[in-house]
Amino acid sequence: MEYDVIIIGSGPGGYTGAIRCAQLGLKTAIIEKYPTLGGTCLNVGCIPSKALLDSSEHFYNAAHTFTEHGIKLSDLQVDLAQMIKRKQEVVDATTKGINFLMKKNKIDEIHGVGSFVDPHTVKIVKADGSEQVIKGKNIIIATGSKPMSFPSMPIDKKRVITSTEALTLQEVPKHLIVIGAGVIGAELGSVWARLGAKVSFVEFADSMIPTMDKTLGKELQKVVKKLGADFYFSHKVTKVENTGDEVVLSVDTPKGEQITLTGDYCLVSVGRRPYTDGLNLEAAGLKADNRGRVEVDDHLRTSVPHIYALGDVIRGAMLAHKAEEEGTFIAETIVGQKPHIHYRLIPGVVYTWPEVASVGYTEEEVKQEGIPYKVGSFPFKALGRARASMDIDGLVKVLAHKETDEILGVHMIGARAADMIAEAVTAMEFRASAEDVSRMSHAHPTYTEAFKEACLAATDNRAINM
């Protein structure tokens, strides 16, 4: 079989790219090594984690805030088996939806491990051992990433686990130790903390979510601390050992001392690595860089012009929505269109509760680059909608250029921040000023009023409700 486009990997970037290719009239095939489409995001990442985050938040609210709302419950319990079952039902429905989209768009779906034979030829080894060989005028590498670890913290998938196993635990841990307080660690740690686990975060950096604006990390720590979590910042894990019923960690403190932490599970959440294992890149004339990434130019072409790569396997943030934009970008590039992606305006989100969302420059970055700036912020506790729902934790912070008033960055922690950040992205895509947003009518009462008020605060300190 010969195709206009072959896509290796069916995560958000791969399947979105396949659909856009098909929409543009290109004969397209998508290759997936696992039985279901959707990659990490739909199967063991974004979708199942959000299902558990929502379930655990419902339980936590039932236990801690329903009484204040005038809702009385008794004998409240976690039915973990049902919670995990519902999570899987959400995953199954979502992945079946991708199957439907492949059929609808007449995309050939091939399951098996794909690898290059030469720059235009891909071999697929199927589960039953049979092989299929296909050719493509264009090939897109969309193979994503895998959880990373270090030799000092060997993963056994029983007591020392990755995010994948943390989504299918059969019991609520007594003490879950999370190595890494970044996005994944914060999300999954908060799930199990809300369900009753003691959670300890051990983080090499000096704050939670260290790649985001420092204000957000400080605010998130305040919230997660209310769940009873402990934090060990600027600490280095030197050894992780499964002793049978327990996990023992040796940890170096900032003072050079060594402490021991003991729990019944340890979640290793120290990042992800690009996944190109078994692709046989050399046969296509390609090689990965020293971080395992496939190098691409500004058009997402590799050094072999008809081979493209996207998502977690190339440079940039490892985000599902970044990969989706890149899948569309490549499809349109192949047919001669001139698409664009503004990488600075791809938002980042942490789906704890309250949610954390960010787009544009952080305050640390504008300082480092010497950009003149001003700051406006507005707390959720001063927001009528937040008080009504009892979601008063958090704030919205706006960075604007000191001379032009153009919005440079928006950083939120609060209820529905994951949805609210889209307004900031829209404003920044059209290079709006803080005053532009402050003069837009925002419905009252809503959470998004916090963004307007923060923009007012950045514009000559004009916030109305603070």
From TrEMBL:
- EC number(s) stated in the UniProt entry for this protein: 1.8.1.4
Q: Which UniProt keywords apply?
A: Disulfide bond, FAD, Flavoprotein, NAD, Nucleotide-binding, Oxidoreductase, Redox-active center
UniProt-annotated binding residues for NAD(+)? G180, A181, G182, V183, I184, G185, A186, E187, E203, G271
Co-factor: note: Binds 1 FAD per subunit.
What cofactors does the UniProt entry give for this protein?
FAD
Q: Which Gene3D superfamilies match?
A: 3.30.390.30, FAD/NAD(P)-binding domain
Q: Which InterPro entries match?
A: Class-I_Pyr_Nuc-Dis_Oxidored, FAD/NAD-bd_sf, FAD/NAD-binding_dom, FAD/NAD-linked_Rdtase_dimer_sf, Lipoamide_DH, Pyr_nuc-diS_OxRdtase, Pyr_nucl-diS_OxRdtase_dimer, Pyr_OxRdtase_I_AS
Catalysed reaction per UniProt? N(6)-[(R)-dihydrolipoyl]-L-lysyl-[protein] + NAD(+) = N(6)-[(R)-lipoyl]-L-lysyl-[protein] + NADH + H(+)
Q: Name one GO molecular function term.
A: flavin adenine dinucleotide binding
Q: Specify which residues bind FAD according to the UniProt entry for this protein.
A: K50, G114, T143, G144, S145, D312, M318, L319, A320, H321
Q: Where is the active site?
A: H444 (proton acceptor)
Cysteines joined through disulfide linkages? C41-C46
- By its UniProt entry, which PANTHER family does this protein fall under? DIHYDROLIPOYL DEHYDROGENASE, MITOCHONDRIAL, DISULFIDE OXIDOREDUCTASE
Q: What else is known?
A: The active site is a redox-active disulfide bond.
By what name is this protein known? Dihydrolipoyl dehydrogenase
List the source organism.
Answer: Spirosoma endbachense
Organism lineage: Bacteria, Pseudomonadati, Bacteroidota, Cytophagia, Cytophagales
